[in-house]
Design brief:
The structure is a homododecamer of 69-residue chains.
Chain A lengths: L5 E10 L3 H13 L5 E14 L2 E14 L3
Antiparallel strand pairs in A: 1-3, 2-3
Chain lengths: 69, 69, 69, 69, 69, 69, 69, 69, 69, 69, 69, 69
Amino acid sequence: MKDPVYKLIELTGTSTESIEDAIDNAIRKAAKTVNNLRWFQVVETRGSIAKGRVEQWQVTLKVGFTVDD
Amino acid sequence: MKDPVYKLIELTGTSTESIEDAIDNAIRKAAKTVNNLRWFQVVETRGSIAKGRVEQWQVTLKVGFTVDD
Amino acid sequence: MKDPVYKLIELTGTSTESIEDAIDNAIRKAAKTVNNLRWFQVVETRGSIAKGRVEQWQVTLKVGFTVDD
Amino acid sequence: MKDPVYKLIELTGTSTESIEDAIDNAIRKAAKTVNNLRWFQVVETRGSIAKGRVEQWQVTLKVGFTVDD
Amino acid sequence: MKDPVYKLIELTGTSTESIEDAIDNAIRKAAKTVNNLRWFQVVETRGSIAKGRVEQWQVTLKVGFTVDD
Amino acid sequence: MKDPVYKLIELTGTSTESIEDAIDNAIRKAAKTVNNLRWFQVVETRGSIAKGRVEQWQVTLKVGFTVDD
Amino acid sequence: MKDPVYKLIELTGTSTESIEDAIDNAIRKAAKTVNNLRWFQVVETRGSIAKGRVEQWQVTLKVGFTVDD
Amino acid sequence: MKDPVYKLIELTGTSTESIEDAIDNAIRKAAKTVNNLRWFQVVETRGSIAKGRVEQWQVTLKVGFTVDD
Amino acid sequence: MKDPVYKLIELTGTSTESIEDAIDNAIRKAAKTVNNLRWFQVVETRGSIAKGRVEQWQVTLKVGFTVDD
Amino acid sequence: MKDPVYKLIELTGTSTESIEDAIDNAIRKAAKTVNNLRWFQVVETRGSIAKGRVEQWQVTLKVGFTVDD
Amino acid sequence: MKDPVYKLIELTGTSTESIEDAIDNAIRKAAKTVNNLRWFQVVETRGSIAKGRVEQWQVTLKVGFTVDD
Amino acid sequence: MKDPVYKLIELTGTSTESIEDAIDNAIRKAAKTVNNLRWFQVVETRGSIAKGRVEQWQVTLKVGFTVDD
């Protein structure tokens, strides 16, 4: 493909473990329905709090993938 | 679902009435094809002008929803 | 006009009623001296407070209009 | 006071009615414990969705008030 | 349609020729599967370098289109 | 003039040809009524789409010029 | 409470271990004096360096909590 | 005037002395042709360098004034 | 304290003299009630105008301080 | 190299021809002293004006390259 | 040194392990050629994806160090 | 030189006196090793506090200079 075109979708992954795990979860979920995932960019890091501790890490990211012909 | 993943889509709703109505219109339209809409964030508020008055409110928003397994 | 050029001016409209009314007021005032107003974009929403209530809505917007030949 | 100093606090007001009402609610709540509220600036407009309609308007704003001597 | 609703998708177009060509490529690719493309907004301009020269222009853009009823 | 003062105006130039041509068109139009144009800064690049191709390039820019005494 | 109001405070948590630990530390400290912590948003990630290694992770975050009646 | 409307213009003031002096120069120049100047907001602070020292302070600001009826 | 936590508050200092003096005034006022002020970051520089001259410098800043155990 | 590290430098390229040519000029100049240039990101597009036409395109970009061991 | 001056350089560190490890790698590499590294600020977090999983964490950061006399 | 290329470096200047003095210090230091400094842009203004007063002004700026052939 001479001039590839990529599409970016925006996802929020969550995890009770870590920021990296929340990102991993979003990418694994996307990989179930989209082929050719290529890169991601973190947009925002948030989370919920319960009993004075982090309950859930919530990371919003853009994921880019090749648009097939 | 232990670690839910959300997808965000970006829409521009319009209305001749108000900012709130433009947002409502975008969400109602999205709800016709997407289940589990959860939240929205306003990205930009614009509008068109005719005869020296606001003709159409145009509100761009991101809408988040649960990605089903 | 093959390639129209637009000018944008920045205004702050105010209202004791609502955000939409503050925007309307700015556009109506601009329409008194400028023809061909075409669109607006909200830049910032602020307001003054008196006696623990919103006293005045203040919305800053850019307004675009056709530059006549 | 020759050179007044102001403090800004950040609040999220909510409403089932409108953006303006969410802002009003935040300011009324703040006015119960803080005197001399002077101005506000909208930081972000979000909301929750239920049954394909806006369930709750959530507006984050900064509120400025005079620091008493 | 009284109050149209638009959807925005984000794409990265590429070209070995120019910024305009990268944008054109993204829009042409999108037009193959989406009707009613209406406008675009450039989000970011990047590129890859090889042998000390621009190898590929990469332009990320949002493309808006009418959501059909 | 010991301490020159400059004014900036915001314009949107359009072209069916290219980004550079849209900028040129805005500056040429401004030069018809303003002397001493000195510099420009691109604010935003957008465009309209028709038949799946770029129809019109729309570039918003600020143009700075010397304020005469 | 029909229309809850939230307050956001800004904190910088630190840790010699990780970004997550710096956020945890800020939230745990806040939980000692504030009830009803609900969510956080990361504002900035910085750190100090000593002997060519990260010495301290410094994460600035906003923490939101319910304002009691 | 029940609901005043303000216009904002953008200026770059310069000075060989200081940032404050550059702002003062822009406002004094504007005051020669515009009545009712009310407030300013600094947009950007730059400057030119000659012989390894600051040659000229250049401060871009928005200036707001009442639009007369 | 192994992992110190800092709190940031936002203030607007004012002065008829200079930007530095407005910042100084905000910090001096904060120091009357808060111990352990450590650093500040300028958020915004504005001011009021009277008789075509700067009447009051208004500088909004964040001030960070150590949260005591 | 298991975990490559890249350095980014910021350049302003200029051209009397086009935006692409200004970027090319910056990259060609950098390639004279830096090996392994890999990518660029446009930071800002400006230009100078003379006789009511664009005199010089000025594009500021970041250029990334591999840091050699 | 009465008034120290710091220089900031921008780096992208990578890692197959974690965000913290990517930052560590960038700082360790920089420490090989620059003395007196003092602090860092994260600019952007991205990564590459392979086989539906994060392949490489890529963190862009600014690193500040003392400029020696 | 038909199409000059400029390089920008980022510095933090400090001073116990004023914002202008912190900028001057950064530029004077840079001028010891770099010829042809041309302009600067302020990126951020911060400072340290001691005994409830500003202890040190810290201004981060970009400085542009001509890249020699």
